[in-house]
Design goal:
The complex is a heterodimer. By secondary structure, chain A is mainly alpha-helical. Helices cover 58% and strands 5% of the residues of chain A. In chain A, the strands form 2 sheets. Chain A has a two-stranded antiparallel sheet. In chain A, strands 2-3 form a two-stranded antiparallel sheet. In chain A, β2 and β3 form a beta hairpin. About 11% of the residues of chain A have low confidence. Chain B has 2 domains: 70 residues, no CATH class; 87 residues, Sandwich (Immunoglobulin-like), CATH 2.60.40. In chain B, β2 and β3 form a beta hairpin. The chains are: A mainly alpha, B alpha+beta.
């Protein structure tokens, strides 16, 4: 009986431990209202390029104020709209993750996609040619008329092939770019 | 350990131990032939009867150790790994979460994809990647239909991270 009780207790402890581990790693800040926080840019229903750049500046300042290093933003050659940057993680991962998520929800979670979706994505010409060649090598019937990742994906019918060609070509042609790229298909 | 002069206290201590334990010694302890004999018999019987105690405790310890090892393994083993692609159901609909790695570990890139499958969830989908050391990559906000995140870590990512809305809980793939 003792053994059974002991076993039940230990199994319960193990399962509870797993549950707690899963729940504590990155639930993120849930108390932030992104709509309210980003209302200054979203209020009129349109996010201009200037507002988007201001939102990214605020995001970067927020992350830096939290104690993390962030590189200066650069324009993405993938869509000529998004700003890319590298954040250098340090310290306790859960604290870092929560801090960055807080900054995300406070500044760019709505403004960035709202701005990008309202504009036409145009891929850097050198990159566009490289992606075209890459996709041809994968037997994708590209027409040479595609101007962005979305149009490449429409022809390919396989987002993964496009994603791979875009990311690999970007890193090859622009090795100085941040390691995290944004591809919108 | 129990001397004659301290027999009374020893008896009381033993009796309290027996009440707390499950060891089958009481029936033989209550049947002494004479006081002296009973003392020696008691001591002898106690010595004989104490043999199973450490064995039982050892078995309890063994079981505890085995379960502790299982518990540690359970805690140390991630519930999922990169590429645990599946449909995730929410109250308002279903999303498909997928992740993987293209190319070599050192030079390739990991990716995570969140795709709307069905339902009328209003939130914007997003995705990111979790490094082996626990840090998350920048979260990429997609549309209501799809979100992609890619990152180079000079290593294969540990998990894809997926959100069905801004404040939704994260799902790992």
């Amino acid at each position: 009986m003792r053994i059974v009780l002991l076993a039940v207790g230990l199994i319960t402890a193990a399962v509870t431990g797993c549950t707690l581990t899963a729940n504590t790693s990155g639930q993120g800040p849930v108390e932030i209202d992104p709509l309210q926080e980003q209302a200054w840019a979203l209020g009129d229903g349109v996010v201009t390029m200037m507002e988007y750049h201001m939102a990214v500046d605020r995001f970067i300042t927020c992350v830096r104020d939290a104690g993390y290093e962030v590189s200066g933003p650069v324009l993405s050659p993938i869509d000529s709209l998004s700003l890319l940057y590298d954040i250098l993680p340090s310290g306790e991962p859960r604290i870092y993750n929560d801090a960055v998520q807080t900054c995300n929800l406070s500044h760019i979670s709505l403004t960035e996609p709202t701005f990008v979706e309202s504009q036409s994505q145009v891929m850097n010409e050198t990159l566009r040619r490289a992606v075209t060649e890459c996709l041809r090598g994968q037997r994708v019937p590209v027409t040479d008329e595609e101007r962005n990742a979305t149009e490449f994906a429409a022809v390919a019918g396989n987002n993964q092939v496009v994603l791979s060609c875009v990311v690999d070509s970007t890193h090859e042609l622009f090795p100085e770019l941040p390691d995290v790229l944004t591809v919108r298909i | 350990m129990f001397t004659a002069s301290s027999g009374g206290r020893a008896d009381a201590l033993l009796a309290s131990m027996y009440r707390l334990s499950v060891f089958p010694i009481r029936a033989r302890y209550r049947n002494p032939a004479s006081p002296d004999e009973s003392r020696s018999q008691e001591m002898r019987e106690i010595k004989v009867s104490t043999i199973p105690i450490p064995r039982q405790r050892l078995s309890v310890l063994a079981v505890a150790t085995v379960f502790s090892v299982f518990a540690v393994l359970l805690l140390a083993t991630p519930a999922q790994a990169l590429g645990d692609n599946r449909t995730v159901e929410r109250g308002c609909g279903k999303n498909y979460v997928a992740s993987g790695h293209n190319g070599s570990a050192a030079e390739g890139h990991s990716w995570a994809q969140t795709t709307r499958q069905s339902g009328d969830c209003r939130g914007r989908l997003s995705a990111a990647l979790e490094r082996r050391d626990g840090y998350w990559s920048n979260r990429v906000y997609g549309t209501r239909q799809e979100a992609y995140a890619t990152a180079r870590f000079q290593d294969i990512a540990k998990h894809g991270l997926h959100w069905g809305c801004d404040n939704c809980n994260v799902t790992r793939s």
